[in-house]
Amino acid sequence: MNDLDQNAAEIGMGGHLGPKTNEEGYRQRMKQRKEVQQKRLEERQREKGLTIIFSGNGKGKTTAALGMALRTLGHGERVAIVQFIKGGWEPGEAKALKVFGKNLSWHAFGEGFTWETQDRIRDQQLVANAWQQSLGYLQDCTHKLLILDEINVAMKLGYLPLEEVLQGLNRRPPMKHVVLTGRGAPEALIEHADLVTEMKLIRHPFREKGIKAQAGVEF
Fold first, then answer.
1. Over the chain, what is the mean pLDDT?
2. How many other β-carbons are positioned within 10 Å of the β-carbon of residue 55?
3. Which of 38, 112, 122, 149 would give a disulfide with 116, using CB separation of 3.0 to 4.6 Å?
4. Is 113 a catalytic residue?
5. Would you call 59 a catalytic residue per the annotation?
């Protein structure tokens, strides 16, 4: 954290947080916060393709990645999605995003969870196929965003070497963003990434209340 970041943290966000002052004192503090924020923005103008990880035991990892897909598509850019584990059914997002036509490429290589497939050799081959498809997208310049859905799980299960993934990420064009989802992201991948978010499980309807997966929520 540099001096500007420290100043911003000390001034705070505003609202009813921070020291109690009258309205004029509050306006002066927020004016100072705005000036600090402007300086932070001025000194940080570099752009690059980001490596983004959504991991953790909580729900919402793929959902967060697809939110980025929608945002990218909204800017008229192309998006590719490769699913490594999921794929036994067509989720609602895949149906909805079809409206973007050729700007979206969606590949579901998985056939479900390990306890559903019960075939470790076939699971590993499907992961290998998904990774070969991913390498093509990593190296092209036509897709602004590539989502590797549940790839962290594929690495955790021992189906895909971390070293191969890091090599693939390092060979991509400089402005391509890549999102990797799934619980159990390797520490070396986390260190490599530019943005990492961990979804924390607090409550889940299936576990606490016996409520099954429902359309529009889980798929």
1. 91
2. 22
3. 112
4. yes
5. yes
Whether 63 is catalytic is: yes
Q: Provide DSSP, 112-172.
A: S-HHHH--HHHHHHHHHHHHHHHHHHHH-SS-SEEEEETHHHHHHTTSS-HHHHHHHHHTS
Please give the DSSP secondary-structure letter assigned to residue 99: G
Identified catalytic residue from 113, 116, 171, 206: 113
pTM here is 0.86
Q: How many CB atoms lie within 10 A of CB 33?
A: 18
Residue with tokens 């609202």: 15
- Residue entry with tokens 């989802």: 181
| CATH numbers and ranges of domains, the chain | 3-42 (no CATH), 51-209 (3.40.50.300)
Instruction: Quote the pLDDT of residue 78.
Output: 98
Q: Does 57 participate in catalysis according to the annotation?
A: yes
